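Weekly sync notes, structure subgroup
Attendees: PM, AL, DS (notes)

Item 1: joint prediction request from the bench team. They want all two components modeled as one assembly rather than separately. Inputs as received:
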Amino acid sequence: MGNGTKWAQGVALAVAAVAIAGCGSSGGGGGSTGSAAKPVHLSFWGWAPGYQDSVKAFNASHPNIKVSFQQVTPGSKGGYQKMLTAVKAGNGPCLAQVGYETLPTFVAQGAVTDISSYANGSAGEFTPAAWNGVRVAGKTYGVPVDIGPMAMFYNKQLFSKYHIAVPKTWAQYRAAGLALKKANPAVKLTSGMTDYDFAGFDWQAGAPWYGTSGNTWKVSYNSPAGQKVANYWQSLVSDGLISKAPTYDPTWLSGLANGQIATVVGAVWQAGTLKASKPISGKFAVAPMPQWSAGANVVGNSGGSSTAVLKGCANTQAAWQFAHWMSTDRKSWPNLVTKGGLFPADKSLQSLPVLNAGDPFFGGQKIFQVFKAAAPNVRQGWVWGPGMQAATTSLNDGLNKAWVGKETVPAAISSAQKAIVRELKQQGLSVKS
Amino acid sequence: MPFLVLFLGMYLAPICVAVYKSLFVMHSQGLGLSGGPSTVFKPLANYTRALGDSAFIGAILRVLLFGVVQVPVMLGLATLFALVIDAVSARVRAAFRFAAFLPYVVPGVVAAMIWSLLYSPNPNASSPFFSNGLTLWSVANVVTWTWTGYNMLIIYSALTAIPSEIIEAARVDGASGWRIAWHVKLPMVRSSLILTTVFSIIGTAQLYNEPSILQAVSGGAISSTYTPVMAANNAIHVPDFQYAAALSVILALVVGALSLGFFKLVNRRGPAWG
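Output from the run, pasted for the record:
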């Protein structure tokens, strides 16, 4: 009995100690502007490879500000949930990596800080699509880091082996898929895309998922242009051109490596995804994104993120200073290109020599040139809505069925539209479909 | 006293917080882009919403069906294995015990990943294991594979505690091996069988690891609200903590009612069997 009591007391003390220590160290949101001897402390949560090195370089050149970087799981895999929970609990970081698609969700949760007064002067430094991405309802909440202009990665060995021309339009893309299938039934044109990758197709086609009119959200997954995209992809499923391998699954990478999946139409950072698989090396090349009409030059964007200043940050000016530096520093950015496969949102950085280098993985092709040419052609007018996590969950539940033929793509989009409108109304928002 | 503090702080407090949170709803207005949602006290709103949420109710019915089939199959196998290793020689017993327990040593998430590769080895073909009607049983197979050995060990250790005189006496009376197993051994391990059943009911209600890992290769057959815990996790992603709390409270009530109901059932039947 006596022993048990002692043991319990020991545990209670240890728990209390851990709790106190935990509270003490996790209050990173704050930071005081003290004397020169005491630098301002900022905490920063993110996941992209290379961020850590940017933080190191910043700390080395800025003695008055000390940024501490914490690696978290990628946003949609739980990182955003962690950030929102931390902000809610009052101990969130000062800065966080937040994708453009999720920034309005953070705004809707009241989890970010308006930095318009510092940031708006720098609007002209970034591509319009990127700047648009950090602006929500007329206020600026973050600094754009990278963007995701899209192109087509294709297995050049397969295309030349079967004498198929590299498609320039979506009609040619489908024809190429049929030709590949005829030449070798084991070859699928591509795999099914979900959430923000699929958004890139709608983005290109001028089918924004959201819009606002006055004080009301307009939800339009099911717009005429959106239906055109959905019907097109359904035709590829019906033709048997879509692999059953889920995109990003290990079986997808092996399908790309062994010639069973011929193309990936995706953002610049897909280059990094492909590089995760050595056997793909030397087989793929990059061409511009297929177009809806011959000779057009319109591309979609998929992904890319900003450095947002979260609610509760005591020193927004220092936070802005770091975020702006990280997005625009010419010396540290090449590291983000090589380590993270990121493509700068800062227009002047797009002339970095590293973006003109040939890539041995792609047979020496200067792949970034394709994306550099695409970046200014990213279509204007895309708007992200609130509650993207819930929205993409509804969308993916349907699309995952559609890609294996258990449902159609248009039906998946329609039911997602309904579910998303219902969810937003549930939250009390004013919504029109 | 320190125990009481720990118990209240670590055990009861989170439950109370969840119940308290579930009484509020988040509310936004217009575009909802000015300053974040407010929380409004509406004690029944989340609960009525949950009871009308077809995805959540569907998830509960799904795990009920899962439990009704999978728990008896798994415990039947576990009991059978336990009786077998109780009856065989010591050397075979050690080897068999180790083999049956091995799957439990593999972490649940890793086991699910191994099975997802087994279920869907060919990237360009649909896996037949996730075709209509078969999905739930593909999940059940993984759970059974993982937990049968664990339950077997609990039942087996109860078997070893049966005094050998009782078995001897039965044998002297001329009872066959099967009769001894059915009329002597099983009634004597009754409390272990009840324990493993209750644990299995609770485990079934908390089904999460296996379906969420298999989701990636299921071709949409496993939705993001496939089980009640997945549905609650989904609400956290929204993020709607209040609704997630309400879903969790409902799930806890359902599991509590099922476990109590099972206890009542076996207690009523008890004397006739034991």
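Discussion: Residues 1-35 of chain A have pLDDT under 50 and may be disordered.
Action: AL to compare against the crosslinking data before next sync.
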